[in-house]
Write a structure and sequence with these properties.
heterodimer; A: alpha/beta; Rossmann fold; Dihydrodipicolinate Reductase, domain 2; 3 domains; six-stranded parallel β-sheet; about 30% helix; B: alpha+beta
Chain lengths: ~375, ~110
Amino acid sequence: MSPDRPGVILAGGIRSHQENYASAFASAGCRLLAVGAAPGLGESETGRHAELAASLGLPLLPLDQAVALPEATIASISVDMMHRARVATLCAQAGLHLYLDKPLAGSPADATAIAAAVRAVGVGAQVFSHATTPWAQAAQAAIREGRLGRILAIHADMLMAKGMPSALPSKPRKERSIADFRQDVAKRELTDMGIYPVSLVAWLLDQRAVSVTAVTANHFFAEHLSHDVEDYGAMLVDFEDGATASITCGRVGWQSWRRPFLSRVIIVGERDTLVFDSEPAELIATSGRGVPAPARNALDPMEMWLSTRSGPRPQPAISGIALADEGSRDVAAFIAALASGVSSGIGIDAAAHHCAIIAAAYRSAAEERAVAVA
Amino acid sequence: MSDLAYLLACLDTAVCKAVRAGEIGTARSLRLHVGGGPGDDLPEQGQLLRLGDAIFACPRVREAQSGRATLCLWQGGQVATVSSAPAPRATIVLTLLGSEGALHLCEQSP
């Protein structure tokens, strides 16, 4: 193979984050070789693999054949949660570097198994996260440069402003501590959204969590309630050197933010408190496009006086023009890390620990007490 | 009254008014962080939670604290995550999520 153009096999189907990762690997200059379908995925997920292959014009191969393609060096893995451990292990044992959807796995045991397989073979591995975004890198730099002093607390949020909320009854959710990660219209959001701030906070602190107190809720979506899965969660996390984190996460409805999501950290240090968020650098465009202009008054064409104003003043149309496309940054960082040996993203052992934090959070919510992180 | 205390008082008023006016539907979740310096009256956790009491209008059923952060659950399932910290400059971050919208504020003095 050409070392400049790594060959990638895709383990995952359409209507999964593999859609994003495939695009990101192609944008990073990689060659997409095939979609690899593991045995035992089930009819629906196997079908989604076939759909992705067809949409990208790639061959659909059994996974063991795909990973054996001579030009394959990377496996991008975004299969349903219950299949991640065996698919990742198969790919690692074939000698492929792994790029993995978040969270790494649906249980600490599966996450530990993946990490062990990666370590045993010595391949590179990275789990998708916000750690490689410019704003997270700026937050890490502020900590490393000592601008904040010793870190006392981090407060982090990940709010996915998508979905159509419904009027739901106001009552506390009764959580179950068992892992159940069926691919469906509704995901468990303490896992799906919570993994972002959990991984970001642990990465920024560069420490292990020791205990978690959490609550889950059904605030917004009938789909989540009918499947008995949470759409919102919040937690307090204690870290080994005494730093505290508070985390909120969830899928919170399309009306809740002006962009698809808001991710944010408030870092409290002995010297300063700084706020970093996912809001992109952008040009703000204002115009009269699509908006009726204010009525023109001949005595006051510059709109200076109250007495000449008639009715509420129309507001200009406002839109943002992004300065850069950040979509493929995490994949690009993974490719760079494979070449340099220096990772800027979330590695496999850290990701396994983050799964343990999430598992402890579910147990805490179910048992209504603080739970130690295994 | 310090600048921070004044700003918090204005915030309480504006948030409660917006909720009562139905701007965000049924209020579900509050995130509030307040930072302030020696000249500010840094609010206690209980004071921050009272904003939740006013918004959610039902009794608290569960509270947990770690450091200067508190996680609180109300009888109607509403959740608040509040925190405060001494800081060299005033900081207020608020997100109030409702069933039909949200209120957001992120203010930090220079």
